[in-house]
Give the backbone structure.
Amino acid sequence: MIKRTIQQLQNMINIENDLTAFQETLIEGVSIDSRKITPGNLFIPFKGEQSDGHRFVEDALKKGAAAALWQKDVPNPPTNLPILVVEDTLFALQELSRSYRNELDIKVVGITGSNGKTTVKDMTTNLLSLQFKVQKTEGNYNNHIGMPLTILSLDEDTDIAVLEMGMSGRGEIEFLSKLARPDVAVITNIGESHLQDLGSREAIAQAKLEIMEGLKENGLIVYFGDELLLREGLSRYQGSADVKTFGRLSSNNLYPVVWETNQQGSTFKINGDATAFSLPVLGAHNVLNALGAMLVAQHFHIPFPKMNEGFASLKLTNMRMELVAGRNGEKIINDAYNASPTSMKAAVDLVSNLPDYQRKILVLGDMLELGEKEKEFHFEMGKYIDPEKVDYVFTYGQLGKEIAAGAQTVFSSDRVLSFNDKPELIDSLMKYTDEETLVLVKASRGMKLEEVVNALLK
């Protein structure tokens, strides 16, 4: 993490008050939550519409913070304390991280995409850790606040940082890319998330391609080559970076030539190498995610045969295709972190094709941020489910009703159950589960369907 004196901080960001008395005070790490202060932290409060973090500055200092930022338009800063007055605390956080990143002798892998970016981040980190000291974005710290905090958490002896870049609109990925200055840029795919904000998949593709704006000279671009929108966007690229693709199609630089999936994960082989790879995570789509990570690892001179060691210890971030056991002996695939039509279809395909279960149940909730065609996307999702391979469909939420309506066009009505009350859904679901049951739980994060998983586990 960042370790600098206040005197050094004055050379990294613009501080507007006299700190002569505190110049030798050492800052170790930063925090934006006064409840999570560790000794030596720089506390950074934000002034919001509903609350103002400046109220907690003195409390943070009492808990061991070495200093705190203070936005100059907030009145009555504490006196005789190590308070750093700045024009804007968010901007100061971002500029501090920019300055710190520029001081680090480090390689950066930036990863974006509509689906799979967190999984590719986890996979890439595991593979690179075979030979390097690697740090990655933790949790969902992938936006204009989270990425600066991630950068400031990097140790000075870290070799490679793997940074996830999220967005909700145009310009956000460009900002993050220019902040992180990646040596490698990865685009996992283009889906339907953010249609509400951007209007079309073409606009989403252009937003994701912004990751190249901060890419260093002679870097590497890795992207899902089966996606025509990305191929078209990269066809106009005239920079110095090497460009490599992954996907199902043999036109890609890396593609699977043998591919089998089961309830333990997947095994596959790739073009140009005889190694049989074992991937201990669920979902055929995760083989494609693995290919993207493998291209990054290859760029850093990790040989393909060695990568199996990295896959063997792989554990994905929680609530992403996580297989757990329920109280009645049922197996539950917890994929409740996020959802789009692309990722939900992939999860449904996984459940549909897994053998060895007498009963398969889908618990599906609203997919958010899909724009004006959201009802159509949900209805088509319901129609997509194969009644020969799935026994029951449970839905939750207002848009979940559209999934149910679509499912009822191919299922008998007694096999499709729709709920707006989560406890009612849970009570009903428990009547159908036993040791021969497989349950998939998937929805957008805002639906909090992990509560269903937790109820089944208790």
